[in-house]
């Protein structure tokens, strides 16, 4: 006698979460900045810096907290995004601390402000707050698709953030650019957060309107031109970017704002004509504004020939010093703590901190940093490709495109490839707004990648499932 039982063979396939890989990479992301910190101390003072252990423990603790949050709330997220951001942030802290040790910058601050306040401890505090925001985003944002509900609210929010710096009594004019607001003794750069908020609007809007924008009415010189009424959105965004450039004298934010929209528009419609139209409109707008805005015109003149106005223009002096920093670095650089990029002045640890990399680490160091940034962009694009919903695809590509554009305009500006924009290098430069906004950006990409990589749930058993017979002796 035998007993026949029915069992199903359908079950969930457990994919590897790669969290242990992330933890191993985080170990390297903490050890490499500690090694760099030791190198700076040995080069400047001939001994290990006294705060090296405390710095390593602090950075390690922050990285560990971020890892635990990802392990718990985004189990299947991309394993490279967090280590790459941690490594760049840690090396940025080392570069800022290295510039804090410059006697030239200390004396300059004492003459200008009556005292010197080091930037590295403040940047470490901003990093801790940024990690807290990173964790909060992953805790609160369970599904990125929820943000699609706030498409038009996000547009209004982005406009408010862009308008705040030009409000009298609230905005602050720093070296000719009105991109800051001062609240309670703290300075905030709203444009850093606006790039994330406006990406929500672009993703939600293009997801609904992409079919209409992809339609072509006529072919001209090999390009499919869109219908006249479909040019309205891009004209509106173009006009808004020009207004930012005119009223805030902020070339970087306007390029980032308009460029991100064109990238997302191309991805949504697959029409090359949008890229060409966007480039023509951005160049035309920059030429018109550059003709009338003295601040933008000064930066263009500094780009064309910085040594022609070296002694009469601060922009020319900064660009000239930056170019000489890259030139003196050579292939391998002068070594940690042995450069003279502090000659650039106060901008050495913000706009021009990449010049310190070029002088002290040389071409090899510059390429290494650009490779790290490129990996973040590549993982963001991979996340967009893996996303299962159109909103997530457009949102991830928008954030990755904005990050890539910011790297390009900052690195190109300090190297003399394009006019200086005044934006800060993500994770490296001193500034709370930049580090806060970019950690939020990384958190959103991690959330989208977790949703994209998470395995589908196993189907419920049913009588129609594949059956197997197990025969047991009675």
From TrEMBL:
The chain crosses the membrane at residues 23-44, 50-69, 81-99, 123-141, 153-172, 192-208, 228-245, 251-268, 275-296, 352-373, 394-418, 424-446. It is a multi-pass membrane protein. It is found in: Membrane. Keywords: Cell shape, Membrane, Transmembrane, Transmembrane helix. Its main location: membrane. Residues 453-474 are annotated as: Disordered. This is FtsW/RodA/SpoVE family cell cycle protein.
């Amino acid at each position: 006698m035998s007993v026949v039982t029915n069992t199903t063979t359908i079950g969930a396939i457990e994919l590897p979460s790669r969290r242990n890989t992330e933890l191993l990479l985080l170990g390297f992301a903490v050890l490499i900045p500690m090694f760099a910190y030791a190198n700076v101390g040995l080069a400047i003072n001939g001994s290990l810096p006294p705060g090296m252990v405390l710095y390593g423990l602090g950075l390690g603790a922050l990285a560990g907290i971020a890892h635990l949050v990802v392990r718990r709330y985004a189990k299947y997220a991309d394993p490279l995004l967090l280590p790459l951001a941690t490594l760049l942030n840690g090396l940025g802290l080392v570069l800022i601390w290295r510039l804090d040790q410059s006697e030239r910058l200390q004396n300059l601050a004492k003459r200008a402000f009556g005292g010197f306040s080091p930037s590295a401890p403040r940047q470490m505090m901003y990093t801790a707050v940024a990690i807290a925001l990173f964790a909060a985003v992953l805790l609160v944002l369970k599904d990125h698709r929820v943000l699609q509900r706030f498409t038009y609210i996000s547009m209004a929010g982005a406009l408010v953030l862009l308008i705040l710096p030009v409000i009298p009594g609230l905005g602050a004019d720093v070296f000719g650019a009105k991109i800051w607001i001062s609240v309670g003794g703290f300075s905030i750069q709203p444009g850093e957060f606006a790039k994330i908020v406006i990406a929500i609007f672009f993703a939600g809007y293009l997801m609904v309107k992409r079919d209409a924008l992809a339609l072509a009415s006529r072919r001209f010189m090999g390009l499919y031109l869109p219908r006249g009424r479909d040019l309205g959105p891009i004209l509106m965004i173009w006009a808004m970017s020009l207004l930012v450039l005119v009223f805030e004298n902020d070339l970087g934010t306007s390029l980032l704002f308009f460029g991100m929209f064109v990238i997302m528009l191309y991805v949504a419609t697959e029409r090359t004509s949008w890229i060409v139209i966007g480039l023509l409109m951005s160049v035309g707008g920059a030429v018109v504004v550059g003709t009338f805005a003295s601040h933008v015109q000064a930066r263009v003149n500094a780009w064309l020939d910085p040594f022609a106005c070296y002694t009469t223009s601060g922009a020319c002096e900064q660009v000239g010093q930056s170019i000489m920093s890259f030139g003196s670095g050579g292939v391998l650089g002068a070594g940690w703590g042995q450069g003279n990029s502090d000659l650039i002045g106060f901008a050495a640890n913000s706009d021009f901190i990449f010049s310190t990399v070029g002088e002290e680490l040389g071409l090899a160091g510059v390429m290494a940093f650009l490779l790290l940034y490129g990996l973040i962009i590549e993982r963001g694009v991979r996340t967009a490709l893996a996303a299962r919903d159109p909103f997530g695809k457009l949102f991830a590509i928008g954030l990755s495109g904005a990050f890539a554009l910011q790297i390009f305009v900052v690195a190109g500006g300090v190297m003399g490839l394009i006019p200086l924009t005044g934006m800060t290098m993500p994770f490296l430069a001193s500034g709370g707004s930049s580090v806060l906004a970019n950690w939020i950006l990384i958190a959103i990409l991690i959330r989208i990648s977790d949703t994209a990589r998470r395995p589908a749930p196993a189907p419920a058993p049913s009588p129609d499932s594949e059956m197997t017979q197990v025969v047991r002796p009675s």
